[in-house]
Write a structure and sequence with these properties.
Length: 165
């Protein structure tokens, strides 16, 4: 029975996948005249349906929106190891803080003089900074529940980045 449940969940997820951005659609879900669905974010960028090139309706797909409201969505960072699932209205909040979210090098983001192509998840950032940008690490410390790394950049202004374990 578990396999059947998983198969049904995969079918629902495939139906909820936007054909443009490939993200899972969440309400409002927009219809074209031929009944194809698209997420509201992509709808704002397109004049015609990407599937059939017909016009969009001002009608929403209420049935699919009901399914979307009740469904638990996997985190976008599932491919990087996150196993969490959430209701559609909690997903963005989690993904903004997910430990598996992908980052570019914090040092390169903070200083235009640093060229670094590193990308990785949040939990790997501290090790990357310590191994590759140690000269910029001005402080390392621990509180009762977390350790941190502070980066200090001198120039026109100072900027600090705290990476928590």
């Amino acid at each position: 029975m578990q396999s059947e449940s998983t198969d049904i969940e995969q079918i629902i997820l495939s139906v909820l996948e936007c054909p443009v951005c490939m993200e899972y659609m969440r309400p409002p879900i927009i219809l074209c005249v031929n009944g194809h669905n698209i997420c509201h974010t992509c709808r704002r960028k397109l004049d015609d349906c990407p599937t059939c090139r017909k016009r969009f309706l001002s009608t929403r797909c209420v049935g699919l929106e009901k399914v979307a409201r009740e469904f638990k969505y996997p985190c976008t960072y599932q491919q990087f190891g996150c196993k969490e699932v959430f209701a559609h209205d909690k997903l963005d909040e989690h993904q903004a803080e997910c430990l598996y979210r992908q980052l570019t090098c914090p040092a390169a983001r903070c200083s235009p003089h640093i060229q670094c192509d590193w990308t990785g998840n949040y939990s790997e950032a501290r090790n990357h900074l310590m191994e590759n940008h140690l000269e910029m690490c001005s402080d390392y410390g621990e509180t009762e529940s977390r350790s941190f790394l502070a980066l200090c950049f001198h120039g026109w202004y100072n900027k600090f980045v705290f990476i928590y374990d």
